[in-house]
Specification:
77% of the residues lie in helices and 0% in strands. It is built from two helices and no strands. The radius of gyration is 36 Å and the shape is rod-shaped. The mean pLDDT is 92.
Amino acid sequence: MNTLSRWSMPLLWALLFVSAVAVVWSRHQTRSLFIQLQGLHSQRDGLDIEWGQLKIEQSAWSTHGRVEQTARADLKMVIPKPDEVRLVQP
């Protein structure tokens, strides 16, 4: 038995073992990353729902009637009389 054949079989077994471990590790990483991706998708969907609700709330708060009511009640603003209005020409 020559030296090459004596070392080739244990070397091939070692390479096979390393390859098997690499496949298992790769599968584990893939599954972990997929679980993380699913969590991020779920978080994104929740944020999209919240964004839609906030846009609806913003549109409700920014209606003309609501702005006028806030100006009158909280800021004590009134519509000026016609003789109090001054037009500024450029």
